[in-house]
Write a structure and sequence with these properties.
alpha/beta; six-stranded parallel sheet; about 325 residues
Amino acid sequence: MASMEYRRLGISGLKVGAVGLGTWLNFGGHLGDREAGHLVRRALEGGVNLIDTADVYADGKAEEELGRVLAGVRRESYVLATKAFFPMGEGPNDKGLSRKHLFESVHGSLRRLRTDYVDLFQCHRHDPETPVEETVRAFDDLIRQGKVLYWGVSLWPAMRIEEAVTIAKELRAAPPVSEQPPYSLLNREIEAEVVPACRRYGLGILPFSPLAQGVLTGKYLEGTRPGDSRAADPRRNQYMQKYMGEQQLRKVARMRDLAKAAGIPMARLALAWVLGNPVVASVLVGVTTEAQLDENLAAAGTKLDPRLKAELDRLFATA
């Protein structure tokens, strides 16, 4: 197994492994505690230090499962990230990025995760109903209280990232240090505006779905949907369809040929391409087996030949 590379999260002093462990579709139900615990331990042994979750994943069960499997692990050895925004109840204040909801969300996450603080607390989406200044002040207060160490955003447009950073500077408050968007060879939308904004304002990018929900591993090239795969699960395949078109699969088939010629497994190649973007701090991978985890971890030490990278850039160029 290749040694882990550690990168600064934006301009902060926090360092995260180039490959992080995501829990979106695998923790809190799909995996039991025994399997989840094994994967977490294996990831930590492989140098992973970033573990990402959210309060809404499996209605809080993903955080609860993480809390159980991380019990007894030295707290200083990992970076725990979670998120808030989506409804966690039926009340009018049980969602969004208001001061009230953020404070209550942090407390709920701390309870489920069985910890005293969250390393990185993220806005799961932008909230058009809450002034950005209110959100910035709330995070700054949570940081001052020691319940949160850093804060970030997820799927925020570039103009809102700029607004948050500008307000934080005016208030002398803690600015966001990260943005978590989908980013892969099949989804390069952030390159137009979000990547330049993150570079300009010092946010590190934490891409999720870097394998386009498994499509870039090549396992769906023949149109098959194995019964135990994500593609066969309506809950877990909800965002896959946009990656499964004929044009996209033709590109993936060509990528398979390039990967074979280079002697690099497709998953490792796809992750290494994402990691080639200097604004990316860590790619978040969701795995269900040790073999998948080990293959993904190998991407941390994979440097692409410039000619191969250029060929992938052309092949998956956006219109």
